[in-house]
Structure formats: C-alpha cells, structure tokens
UniProtKB/TrEMBL annotation:
Family: Belongs to the AB hydrolase superfamily. AB hydrolase 4 family.
Domain AB hydrolase-1: 128-366
Superkingdom in the source lineage: Eukaryota
Active site (UniProt): 208 (charge relay system), 336 (charge relay system), 365 (charge relay system)
Membrane-traversing stretches: none
Gene Ontology MF, one: monoacylglycerol lipase activity
Source organism: Gossypium anomalum
Pfam families the record matches: Abhydrolase_1
Protein name per its UniProtKB record: AB hydrolase-1 domain-containing protein
Classification lineage: Eukaryota, Viridiplantae, Streptophyta, Embryophyta, Tracheophyta
Length: 384
C-alpha cells in the first residue's frame, strides 16, 4: 500500500509562512435529491451530487455527463473503507512506457518527470499538456495515475507525471523529500514544461497531497502561474483536521500504510540526513509510529518549522483558495476517510469566480467505484 492511492501528505532557500485566520468551515448535509449547506446559500441542484462554487455557472456547460446520477457500485460502493481499499488493491494497472527526465533545482535537488514514451515524436508541439501530481509517496507507477494518463492520451493530450522528490525511485540529491507546502519544485516544473512547449496550453491534476500541493501553488504563485486550468481530487485542504482524522478509529489502518511508505522511502536516502543528525531525528524517520511522528522528525525540519503543528497549519491549501486566478475544479467525496469533507473551504470556493466544487455522496479516498468503467478502472468524470 506504500504507493497506493491512500494518500495525504528540501531545505528550501526560503519558506512563505501563511497563517491566515479562516472563518468556520461550512457543515454539509448530503441528500439524494439535493445538497444544501448551513449557510442557506443556493447551490446547483443535482439528483446525487453537490455542485457549488463561484465559477459553477461558467464551467457547468463544459460537462456533458454531469447531469447523470452518481450510482455507486453494488456492495463495494456503499462503504467508504471498502471503496478506498478495493481501489488501492484491485484497480487494474494499464501498461505505460515512460521516458524519464531529471531536472536539477536551485538548491541542488532533483525532480523526476516521467513523460509518455514516444509522444515527443508523435504529437504536435501545440498539443495540450497535462501535468499529473500523485499523492503522498505516490508516483508514475500508481494505477490511478496511469488510468488518468491513458484517458488524457486517448484524447490527444501530452502527459507528464511530476514525481515529488524521492517518489517513484527518483534520485535524491539533498536532504529533502516530498512536502505539502514547498511549491518551488512545482514552479520549476511548470516553468520547464512551458518553456519546452511554448505553443501548448498546460493543465494540471493533483490527487490527495498532490492536490494540496497543486492548490498551494495556484494560490501562492497566482501572479506567475502559467497553467490554463487545474483539477484537485480528494484534497485534504486542512492538514490540521486531516491529521486529527487520520488517527481516529479504523483510519489508523491508513496511517500505518502511509507511514510505512514514508519510512521505506526515507530509508533509501537516510545517509543524506544522518550528516545533519543534530537537526533530524533519523531513527524516528526510519521507524515512525505515525505519519505525524515522521513529519515531526523529518518533514518539518527540512522546511524550517519549529513543530509539526506549525508545518501542518502553514501547509493548508484551504488558506489560499481565495487567491486562485485560473479555472480550478475541486472534486471531493463526502465520505472520504482521509480527506474529511469538513476540511473543504466551501466559503472561499463559493466566493472565488474561478473555482467550482463537486462533492460525490460516496467515493472514499480516491475510490470512486462508480460509472461505466468502475470498479476496476477509473471513472471518466473529468475526461469526457
């Protein structure tokens, strides 16, 4: 499960600290007929989906299947844990051949981009480009990434997977691995892809922690963002709430899976951190009891935070949704066990004319075992 879609979450030259005070999050009630919020604000009616956002009126005409009801797969689709675990273990994995490109960053770090092999010869230079940002410890090898890639490629898109530092067997050249708030690498990737294909429109999709990273980039770098649009899927949005939620009841199974993936990735590169043993708790990084303990020992140190709580509170993408200036579609599941729906910034999404939110009644965490291609493939909600 280390590289499955069970996803949440090096020393950079500088870190932007964001400590905005946010209003209380909206409580959501999901019903079969329509979904309303406690704010009393009107939303778009749908037989089974919640659709809202300041950009909804503008974006909805682009969806030619969104009027259809959400029909969960029998048995599996009525339990959030079954949906999440089934998708992680039993979703098919398409055959995809990659061509890897490694980028060197200003701090001497390394980013691994996996392009679809042969596309640089077969596609015109102005083909639209899709950058994929997987979840925590995820990468180009994951089934949900490959299914999205195959769908986009079938429509003539050029696709590249942005593997965060240390993920997908990417080389690590500095004591920094994947983090939720470090947007410098995303800036570097988008700038690189833009300069390589100046005639192409570029879009991005991020899952779970990758969604949080993507939205942080869109909000913090809105003045220089060259993307034409983006999609965030199962974004935890508020890492403080997500952290608390991950350690409750059955959710501990996801915490164990994620911390296992983190420690295995860290073990491969621990020697880089051992040279700085006064700062990093290497032993805790190798054998963390929780994701939180790993982030306290390794992640928050690499970013210069004094505590893991400071790292989480300053890494929440819910704080910057209001600043997004390009079309952004957020898709969440109301029963997500890892990205709890109460962390979703409803007010800011409703107030931003560039944002739209779709909430499905079921789906678990990156499960969504509904639709013609489900449960063994990826539903085609956003690629039709």
């Amino acid at each position: 499960m280390a590289t499955s879609p069970l996803s949440l979450t090096s020393k950079p030259p500088s870190v932007t600290r964001l400590c905005h005070q946010r209003p209380p999050l909206t409580t959501v009630r999901v019903s079969a007929a329509a979904v309303t919020t406690t704010t009393g604000m009107p939303d778009h009616h749908h037989p089974s989906l919640e659709i809202t956002g300041g950009g909804a009126d503008r974006f909805l005409p682009a969806f030619n299947t969104l009027h259809l009801p959400y029909k969960p797969f029998p048995i599996i689709g009525w339990n959030r844990h079954l949906e999440t675990i089934f998708a992680a273990f039993f979703r098919t994995v398409p055959e995809v051949k990659y061509r890897r490109e490694c980028l060197r960053t200003q701090d001497n770090g390394t980013i691994a981009l996996d392009w679809v092999y042969g596309d640089h010869r077969s596609l015109p230079s102005d083909s639209p480009i899709l950058i994929l940002l997987p979840g925590l410890t995820g990468g180009s090898q994951d089934s949900y990434v490959k299914h999205m890639l195959v769908k986009a490629k079938s429509k003539g898109w050029r696709v590249v997977v942005f593997n965060s530092r240390g993920c997908a067997n990417s080389p690590v050249t500095t004591p920094q691995l994947q983090t939720a708030s470090f947007t410098a690498d995303t800036c570097h990737v988008v700038d690189h892809v833009s300069s390589r294909y100046p005639k192409a429109s570029i879009y991005a999709v991020g899952w779970s922690l990758g969604g949080n990273i993507l939205v942080n980039y869109l909000g913090r770098e809105h003045h220089r963002c060259s993307l034409s649009g983006a999609v965030s899927l199962c974004n935890p949005f508020n890492l403080v709430i997500a952290d608390e939620n991950l350690r409750k009841g059955f959710n501990n199974i996801y915490d164990r899976a994620l911390r296992g993936g983190l420690s295995r990735t860290f073990e491969k590169h621990a020697s880089l951190f051992e040279e700085m043993h006064d700062e990093y708790n290497v032993q805790a990084g190798l054998n963390p009891r929780t994701v939180r303990e790993y982030d306290e020992a390794i992640t928050r140190v690499s970013l210069g935070y004094k505590s893991v709580d400071e790292y989480y509170s300053n890494s929440c993408s819910c704080h910057v949704v209001q600043h997004v200036r390009i079309p952004l579609l957020c898709i969440q599941a109301a029963n997500d066990p890892i990205a709890p729906i109460e962390a979703t910034p409803y007010s800011d999404i409703k107030d931003n004319p560039n944002c739209m939110l779709i909430v499905t009644p079921q789906g678990g965490h990156l499960g969504w075992v509904a639709g013609d291609d489900a449960p063994l493939e990826l539903p085609g909600l956003i690629m039709r």
